[in-house]
Each structure stands twice: as C-alpha cells, then as structure tokens.
Amino acid sequence: MNKSYFLPILFLLILDCSGRQLVDPVFKEDGKTAIHGYDPVAYFTESKPTEGNSKFTYLWKGAEWKFSSEKNLQTFKKSPENFAPQYGGYCAYAMRDGEAYETNPKAWKIVSGKLYLNYNEKVHGFWERDVPGNIVKADQQWKVLPRKEIKP
C-alpha cells in the first residue's frame, strides 16, 4: 500500500468513528420551524406552552419562530437569547450526554430565567431528578457539540 494514503485514510476513519454529527443550531422537526411552532415568549409571559400563529413569524438562527401575538414577536426580536430554549431546543436531558434529541413543547421548565425542553413528559421527569446537575452537564456538552454554521 502506498504510504501517502495512510494518514488521510486514518483521519477519515477517526472522523467517521467519532459518532458526532454536525447538528443544526436550532432543532426543527420539519427542517424549518423552531420548537414545533410554539411561541417561546409565552412560556415566560403565560407560564404555559402556546402555539404560535403564522401571521407572527421571525427568522433567527436559521429557523422560523412563531408567536401567538405581535407583542410576543417584538419582545423576542429585542432579545431572542432571553427567550429561545437552551441547547437550540434539543432535549435538555439528552444533552447532558451530548445527544441532540427532538423535544415536545409540552415537556418544559424555566430555570433561572432560561427555558429548557425535553423529549417528552416521562423524560422530563428523569431530568427533574437532578435539574442543577443535569444543566451543568448539558451546558458542558452543548459547548463542544459540533454545530452546522448558519448561512445568512
């Protein structure tokens, strides 16, 4: 075997075996809409998941965000980082292990002014067993999780 091919092949094998895929910065089940079309601001203002309306949308971080009112849309536009779910809307419990799983907008919690979503209500129950510890682990994993770049 030609030795000049050895290093590139080894590099590709290491990359392939790492198991870490690039993930979108924001979870979009349909490839377009953030958090299943639910209004992220409503979690904070109404203390419940509220479906957004197609009349009130905003493109941010490569995803379409929907809102239940013009007021919530404007609030989000001023500071989206304050209302968008943590970990791009991926499951907070799975993120503690570096996994990017889908979420259910009805499995949620606000902790220290931040919105966290989980895969479903059962998984949310597991996450609730050690919220502070799970957040610390998930924060660390989110920092190193390879994400796709957003094209303007």
How do you describe this structure in short?
The protein is an alpha+beta fold and 152 residues long. The chain has helices at 6-17, 40-45, 70-78, 92-95, 121-128, 131-144; strands spanning 53-60, 63-67, 104-111, 114-118.
Structure notes:
This protein is α+β, with helices and mostly antiparallel strands and 152 residues long. It has helices at residues 6-17, 40-45, 70-78, 92-95, 121-128, 131-144; strands spanning 53-60, 63-67, 104-111, 114-118. The protein has a two-stranded antiparallel sheet with strand order 1-2. The longest helix is centred in the C-terminal third of the chain and has 14 residues, at 131-144.
Could you outline the blueprint of secondary structure elements for this entry?
Blueprint: H1 6-17, H2 40-45, E1 53-60, E2 63-67, H3 70-78, H4 92-95, E3 104-111, E4 114-118, H5 121-128, H6 131-144
The total of beta strands comes to: 4
Low-confidence stretches: 6-18
How much of the sequence lies in strands comes to 15-25%
Task: Strand order, main sheet: write it out.
Answer: 1-2
For the report, how would you describe the main beta sheet? 2 strands, antiparallel
Number of helices: 6
Helix and strand run: HHEEHHEEHH
Helical residue percent? 25-40%
- Please tell me what the overall shape is: globular
What is the CA-CA span between the terminal residues? Answer: 44 Å
Mean pLDDT: 89
Report the C-alpha radius of gyration, rounded. Answer: 18 Å
